[in-house]
Amino acid sequence: MKDLLKKLNLLYKDESLYVQALTHASFAYENQTDNNEKLEFLGDAVIELLTSDYLYQKDLADEGELTKRRAQAVCEEALVIFAEKIHLDQYLRLGKGEQLRGPNAAMIADAFESLFGAVYLDLGFKQAQKLFHKIVVPHLNLVWGIKDYKSALQEYIQSGDKRNISYHIIKEQGPSHNKIFEAAVKLDNHIVLGTGMGRSKKEAEQNAAHDALKKGNYDFKEII
Q1: Is 59 a catalytic residue?
Q2: What is the CATH topology of the domain spanning 149-215?
Q3: What are the pLDDT digits (tens) for 106-125?
Q4: 44 has catalytic annotation
Q5: What gap in Å lies between CA 74 and CA 12, rounded to an integer?
Q6: Cβ-count burial of 219 within 10 angstroms (0-12 exposed, 13-18 middle, 19+ buried)?
């Protein structure tokens, strides 16, 4: 852990936060310790704000394009790209079964978000922003081409009538340390357009959007 923190040049105060950030639920379950799920929740919001601020300051495009780029930069695939640049997967604390299989994309992305949650709690927003500019900004050019189905579906719907879509986790299966999620994307909060499965909520939502796009050919004015 100290090796990673040194590599990131983080003058940390509470090392235990970073240990927790890299602790997957499978390890926590086997060793009766805290996992990184709450830090992931916080870090997700921190990264989204940092990305929004960066794109706004750069004044790269209009609101629609900014929204699309932000979605590309914070999706699971992008987070894995950023995490790989600092070899974050080598520092994850996983249960025995997960160690044998190796961390999947969801585990790596969650740990990356958790890392930012830990930095925010330990050192504050400015240090989180500094880390963002060090390990995310230099690699943003690698993520602009990522296919973001949620943004594509949003654009598809708004190109017709002005309707709203929302995502809902409708099912969770498996033990807490190895869950499978099922998401549904709904039009106006009640008409299901598509469903999808994933090892993370984000992956499930992307697959639900993809399912909706594959079905396609909606006439949103006709849907009641």
Answers
A1: no
A2: Double Stranded RNA Binding Domain (3.30.160)
A3: 899 999 999 999 999 999 99
A4: yes
A5: 25
A6: exposed
Whether the Cβ atoms of residue 123 and residue 180 lie closer than 8 Å to each other: no
Q: How confident is the model at residue 224 (pLDDT cuts 50, 70, 90)?
A: very low
Rounded-to-integer distance, Cα 222 and Cα 108, Å: 42
Which conformational region is residue 203 in: left (phi greater than 0), alpha (psi within -120 to 50 degrees), or beta? alpha
Scored b (16 or more CB within 10 A) or e, 101-115 reads eebbbbbbbbbbbbb
Asked whether the beta carbons of 168 and 196 are under 8 A apart, the reply is: no
Exposed, middle or buried: residue 145 (CB in 10 Å: 0-12, 13-18, 19+)? exposed
137 close to 60: Cβ distance less than 8 angstroms: no
Cα separations (Å) of 91 from 56, 60, 100?
33, 35, 15
pTM: 0.78
Query: CATH 2.120.10.30: does it fit domain 2-142?
Result: no
Domain residue limits, the chain? 2-142, 149-215
Catalytic residue among 40, 76, 98, 113: 113
